[in-house]
Amino acid sequence: MRGPIDYIVLEFEGNHFKGEVLTALTDAVSKKIINVLDLALIYKDGNGNVTALELNNLDQELTRSIEVLHRERAGLITIEDTEEVGEVLDDNNSAGLLIIEHLWAKDLKKALINANGRLISEGRIHPDAAAELDEEEEN
Q: What is the pTM of this model?
């Protein structure tokens, strides 16, 4: 049984991937909070050309960090997915496209199934809306 699965697209200004993002992801994976099912790095140059970056074209340290995260290699991300992300990227920016499984929720899912419960709705509150909630709590 799998936990809930989501995709996440993270944009990086100026085509610079920074280590702290991979450190945080690696930490979440090692703590078994999430599992990275698939991962793609997408680059858009100043002329609007989009390229999915291959691991062997990255520096060795970044490649090692990504390989630790990307053990399962489920093949879920398609060329069409990377092209779609490229369409919304600003020029001279990069993106990480991740498909993650929420491991923390597996026991909850099993308990709900055993209790004859069922999911009838789900969604996600966008970070901008969550910031509004934080502001309301502060006032």
A: 0.77
